[in-house]
Structures are given as C-alpha cells and as structure tokens.
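Appendix C. Worked example: Transglutaminase-like domain-containing protein
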Amino acid sequence: MRKQLLFLLFAFGLLLGSTQQLVAQRSRVIINHLPKEKKTSSLKTLANQITRNTTTDTQKSRAIFTWIATNIDYDSDLRYNPKLQEEYFRSKDKLIKKALERKKTVCAGYAYLFQALCREVGIEASVIDGFTKKTVPSNTVRNQVHHTWNAVKLNGNWELLDITWATSFGKNGMPDTFWYRTRPQDFILTHYPKDVAWTLLKNPISFRRFEGVLATN
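Step 2, the predicted output written as structure tokens:
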C-alpha cells in the first residue's frame, strides 16, 4: 500500500511538472509569434497581427501588452525635450504614430497605443492620468499629473496595468508582468489616479495618505 501511495505521488508530480512545462511552452509560443518591429499600414492590421494566435479578450490584451513592452522603448529624449513634446503631443493620434515610427515613446504614448490596439480588436480600455511614487515631488499639486497608465475591461471587470513600469522593471528583454492586471490594493502603493474612481478600490485612500504610504517597488 505504501509503495502504491509513493508511486501515485511520484506520478502526480510528473503530471504537474509536465502541465506547468506545457503552459510555459504555450505562453512562449504566443510571444514568439508576435510580429517583431513590423511596419504596418494601419492599427487594425497591427492589432490583428499581434492577436492572431489568441481567442479570449484576456489573451488578446496580454499579447498587446507584451508586444508594446518588447517592441517600444522608453523615449528619454522626448521626456526631456519640450520642443519634441510640443510636436508629438498635438494629438493622441500623432503620439501613437510617432511611437510606432520611432519604436520609442513615453508613458502617454504607451497608454494611448495600448488603448488604440485594444479598440481595434473589440476590447474596451481607458487611459488614466495620475501620479506615482517615482514622480511625486514634495510640492505636488493635484491637477498637475506626472504619469499615465491604463485600465482594461476583461470579463466585465476593470483591470489595471502600466506598460511603462513593465518595461522599466523587465528583465532579459521581457516585461515585468506584475504590472499587467495588477491588483488594485497593490497598484495603490505606487500609483494614484487623478480620478479617484480609477483606484478601483471600494474605499480609496486620500492623496495625502498615498504620499505617506511606503511603496514596495
């Protein structure tokens, strides 16, 4: 009886390991099939290319998140160049176009590109302006936002994500997936939206309390 039990535990361990390996392989397959830095004539074409091996909205949004984070670098030149900002920020369409042309952008570019690609495959996404622990100076005024991120609606629920931070904290050319569908109670430790409703918390904390909360990242 003891030998049979040990055998069953061993077999279960092999099955679990094989299942986990298969899931990892499938995840890599989806990522490996994403179009790498491919020029496109339209956002619709690009969105369809990125999501062609997916079926659910969750898979589609994850593929879009991953493609942007692995193909669009952070644009430090744009961040610190007022003249470029004046040119690129004339409209969100201009910002998206420049992000795809130059393969780099800033937080607003990431957010508007994600929203636009999601829209092309029928997924609702919002662009959220606000503050983060890295960008909140001591004399912050609530109407002067410093960062931009997204919320995406999946299975009837809003989920939070930040492609800028996923790119910044990523390793080995892959984004940090902690910043995709991050739990609201974790997101609030580092991000505070201008519209408090986008904390997605039943009992949102105040902005002043946010300033005093110790960030874990």
